[in-house]
Specification:
About 40% of the residues are buried. It contains 15 helices and 13 strands. It has a five-stranded parallel sheet. A five-stranded parallel sheet has the order 10-9-11-12-13, with helices on both faces. Helix content is about 50%, strand content about 15%. By secondary structure, the protein is an alpha/beta fold.
């Protein structure tokens, strides 16, 4: 039986339509959260990172950690396992991950005018008109980020779907009937070719996971599969292309099901920036907090030369915001700043994000400040001017402690 993919705008009756289709076709209904929960349970993955990849804004640390791309590879593998079951209705953002090359998949989009959806949001959630409109637009922003990231398209672009239903002009029962009638079409019948396309998608996903777990960004080393043959296109310049290709071939060739591997420059190889592999043994989510802008920017650049990725903010309030949205591994924190001072930031960080390690780096401290900060849970207390090697060692020690806690 064919697979039905349903991508729905918020307040477009997506849940009701998907449930009706699954009941009528006798299929399993799987939502985004179902896939996330299974990956978190069976694979030990972080549900928060998977949700951020789907719905959130890119992390300020993503260029160093490749967290979004790693999560995307894992989500693809989870979707690929589901597609092998065939009797499936997939509802949500993850429906966009299913390749259009799989011919027994019916791609459906449920849409409606923004004002109509806002009226529904107001009625269902008890919001006023302004709040309801803001809620719908916020939902749409997440959908746009996701679809543009994957396909460089609007989330409901016609070329991404076989059917688009305007739910402000279609009853739920009518939508269910239309979808089920189309799903029964002989054009969507499962065939040996469509099953091979599912197998190709699954294999490419497994290779992506293998590469991403070893620090390679799937956006820069794009993987496709065809009957066990893996093709990897490198879309950023690299030093020693032959040696790099051998590394990718070695990683891909040990994945179950891979028969051969071909690595070659992709279309963006000569135009894009230099390829950067993530080293997961080094801190990649470091937040530098200091109001001395020239100093902290220079510090960030010097850390980059040591393959330590960092983001920079200039006050305590911004540091707390970034910590809430992205939760860095290590924060290097100045004490004397306008607004919220470093001691107060340290208190709030250890209260709200106890897993984050904080290194105090100050030019205006005292022994009393040192004692206070260490008693509040700081990992280390360093004074300016600091030797970059000493700071790097402290950051590595903090990161090693974080990794040890996770083992």
């Amino acid at each position: 039986m064919s697979v039905v993919n349903i991508f729905s705008g918020s307040f477009c009756s997506g849940e009701e339509v998907a449930t009706g289709v699954a009941d009528r076709l006798g299929c399993q209904l799987v939502r985004d959260e179902d896939v996330i929960a299974r990956l978190a349970r069976d694979e030990g993955l972080k549900a928060g990172a998977l949700r951020r990849a789907l719905y959130g804004k890119p992390s300020v640390f993503n260029q160093f950690s490749h967290e979004r791309e790693r999560a995307l590879s894992q989500l693809k593998e989870g979707v690929a396992l589901l597609l092998a079951q065939e009797n499936l209705v997939l509802l949500g953002f993850l429906s966009h991950l299913v390749p259009r090359t799989i011919s027994h998949v019916l791609d459906v989009c449920l849409v409606a005018e923004v004002k109509w959806r806002a009226m529904r949001a107001a009625r269902e959630l008890g919001l006023n008109e302004k709040e309801a409109l803001a809620r719908v637009r916020r939902d749409d922003e997440a959908a746009f980020r996701w679809a543009e990231y994957l396909n460089n398209r609007e989330p409901w672009a016609p070329e991404l779907f076989d059917m688009r239903l305007s739910m402000d002009h279609t009853l739920v029962a009518e939508a269910v009937e239309l979808i089920c009638d189309n799903a029964a079409s002989q054009v969507l019948a499962v065939s040996p070719a469509s099953r091979r396309a599912v197998a190709d998608f699954a294999l490419a996903s497994r290779v992506e996971v293998a590469l991403s777990e070893n620090g390679h960004n799937p956006q820069d080393a794009q993987v496709t599969a065809k009957d066990g043959a893996i093709s990897i296109l490198i879309n950023k310049k690299v030093m020693f292309l032959g040696r790099f290709s051998e590394e990718l071939e070695k990683l891909a060739s040990v994945v179950e099901g891979v028969k051969e591997v071909k690595v070659e420059p992709g279309p963006n190889y000569y135009q894009a920036d230099v390829y950067r592999r993530a080293d997961f043994q080094l801190p990649s989510k470091v937040l530098l907090v200091d109001d001395e802008q020239e100093f902290v920017q220079t510090l960030s650049e010097r850390l980059m030369l040591r393959e330590i990725g960092s983001a920079v903010v200039h006050d305590g309030e911004e540091a707390l915001r970034v910590a809430a949205e992205d939760e860095p591994d290590v924060i290097v924190l100045d004490l004397k700043m306008p607004g919220i001072d470093g001691v107060e930031v340290l208190k709030r960080l250890k209260r709200d994000h106890p897993g984050v390690e904080v290194i105090i780096l100050t030019g205006h401290g005292s022994e009393a400040d040192r004692d206070l900060c260490m008693s509040l849970g700081a990992f280390a207390y360093l004074e300016k001017p600091v030797d970059i090697e000493r700071l790097s060692e402290a950051m590595q020690g903090a990161y090693d402690l974080i990794k040890k806690r996770k083992e």
